[in-house]
Amino acid sequence: MAVPKGFRKDIKIIKDSVGFDRRKEILDGISNKGTYLPRGVMYEDMDKSFIDFVENDLSLILDGDKVPVVFLTLQRWSEFSKTWQNSDKFKDIKMPFITIVRQPNPQVGQNQAGLFNIPGRRTYTYMKIPTFEGGRKGVDLYKIPQPTSVDINYEVRLFCNRMRDLNKFNVKIQQAFNAIEYYIRVNGHPMPLFLESIGDESNVDDFENRRFYVQPFEINLRGYVLDEDKFEVVPAINRALVFTEVEDLELAPILRVSTDKSEAKAFYNFIFKPRASNKITYTADFDLKYKKLTNILGVTNIKLSVNGVEKLNGLSIGQDIIISANDTITIQVTKNFYSEGKFTLIGLII
Amino acid sequence: MSNKRIPINRVNKFFSEEDFELEISFGREAIEGDGNFVVVLYRVDRDMTSSDDIYGEARKDEIRFYAPVELRVIPILSEPENKAYNSSSGSLRYLQDGQLTFGIYDAQLNDLDVTLNYGDYIAYAVTEQEIRYYTVVNDGVKNYDNKHTIMGYKGAFRTVTCAPTDENEFRGF
After folding, report:
1. β-pair type (A69-72, A97-102)
2. What total of structural domains would you count in chain B?
3. Per-residue tens of pLDDT for chain A, all 350 residues
4. Complete DSSP assignment for A15-33
5. d(CA A341, CA A286)
6. Closest-CA distance of chain B to residue A72, Å
7. In-domain check, residue B170
8. With an 8 Å Cβ cutoff, are A164 and B87 in contact?
9. Judged by CB atoms within 8 Å, which residues 5-34 of B form the interface with A?
């Protein structure tokens, strides 16, 4: 059925991220479905991802059947275990098929453009994870070593009987490597593939024998090894949580008594420190007459009671206040709680 | 086509056309009567077979052929070869059928009114259940060499060479 002109069937609903957001997305992909650490990468992981790449991204369907992909190693018995579904009664694989052979000698890698690495295999902080254990708040450092770059060469071969099948696969390869490199994700780590060469090993030289096409593609994976055994979790700062309870206690006012026997005078110096109580009670030592209030500072009113009877309410003594020894004197001042107040009460000893 | 008929007078002192025919009838009796090794010839119908416009290749099960013909021959089956598809790494081994070479009298083909062509298919029943398929790589039509004549008189016998073929290319019925 014809599609109307202008009809779009590839509308992008999700906007692709670019720049920093894209880099963050790639980083998230590395640690996706994992712990706080990235997933490790070993040769097997790269092989598996490469097989997936050939099986899925380069998937070849001929005559309605998917062309099988076989990863070949050395052990003879395993060949049949991989090909039995596509083999004839003599256990020979049937055409067409694709084989993958990994060269067994991975080379020193160029993933980091062949630059020098920091020696010593030290580890670097990948992530800081807050912890709270036993009342202690802290941070654990998740550290990983610098990945080791490796280059792995794969040989992908298509075996088939027809030129048109050959074309189909060749075009798929050419399109995949249209931008020179093609990225596969090995445990979330993006790694580039480079198409090194396309050859021809078709079995056509022996004219009087069986003939078929063989097209080898040499593909170079520039990957890296990230060994999970070398990952470290190191505790960093720990901070103890200390609770201090502060009690707002009142200070006792200070009373200093001095006498001048020659003049038969007694001096009662009252000092109310900041946050001190504004009330003081004491017992008189002498029979005396309070005559005067002096040196008043920071106090706005003074109440003086003798045995519970108020004798003064103000800042000056009008009439002498007679006190007998052992009387209970109570003085209450009015002042700011957080500032100092003081005054001197002068009495005449009788 | 030329209508020239040139009399063959070679060795005519002691060998004639009748002797030639007699020799052939002896040979055919030995091969067809005594040996009775049968191969089946599938002649490709080049008109009915649908093929690719550019490459002229037929896809699986697209080869059309005329009614199969049984030929009685002297077959020579070469030993299967142990090979590897990935020759560089020596992996993916397979056992490749050896060539099928058979001898047949032209007279039999004439009697059956069939021609053997390059690319035709040959089936050979190796057991009651298993048939192996081959494709003709040399139809031996130029059989006037000494080996294929009778006393150098005329070519009577031809040697046909066939290479094993893939099921993906042709699988008979």
Report:
1. parallel
2. 1
3. 565 677 777 777 888 889 998 888 888 877 777 678 888 899 999 999 999 999 999 999 988 889 999 998 877 777 777 888 888 878 888 889 999 999 889 998 888 777 777 888 889 998 888 888 877 788 889 999 989 999 999 999 999 988 999 999 999 999 999 999 999 999 889 999 999 999 998 877 777 888 889 999 999 999 999 998 889 888 887 776 677 887 777 788 999 988 888 888 889 999 999 888 889 999 988 888 888 899 999 999 999 999 989 988 888 888 888 888 889 999 999 998 888 999 999 988 88
4. PPP-HHHHHHHHHHHHHTT
5. 25
6. 7
7. no
8. no
9. none
Specify burial of residue A250 (Cβ count, 10 A radius: 0-12, 13-18, 19+).
exposed
How much is the pTM? 0.67
HSE-CB at A80 with a 13 A cutoff on CA atoms is 9
- Domains, chain A, ranges and CATH? 19-113+148-227 (3.30.2000), 254-349 (2.60.120.10)
Write out the two tokens for A25. 């997305």
Q: Which B residues 78-107 touch A at CB under 8 Å?
A: 85-89, 91-97, 99
Q: Is B169 on the interface with A (CB under 8 A)?
A: yes
Residue B61 within any structural domain of the chain:
yes
Q: d(Cα A328, Cα A284) in Å, to the nearest integer?
A: 6
Q: Do B166 and A79 touch (CB under 8 A)?
A: no
Nearest Cα to Cα of residue A255 among A333, A322, A307: A333
For residues A57 and A176, give the distance between their C-alpha atoms in angstroms, rounded to a whole number. Answer: 8
**What is the gyration radius of the CA atoms in chain B, in angstroms?**
19
Domain that holds residue B121: 17-164
Residue B88 lies in a domain: yes
Whole-number Å distance between alpha carbons of A108 and A152: 9
* A230 secondary structure, DSSP code: G
Sign for the pseudo-dihedral over CA of A245, A251, A252, A257: positive
> Does B146 reside within a domain?
yes
* DSSP helix, strand, coil percent of chain A (3-state; round to 5): 15, 45, 40
CA distance A151 to chain B (A): 19
Give the nearest partner residue to B96 out of A70, A101, A210, using CB atoms: A210
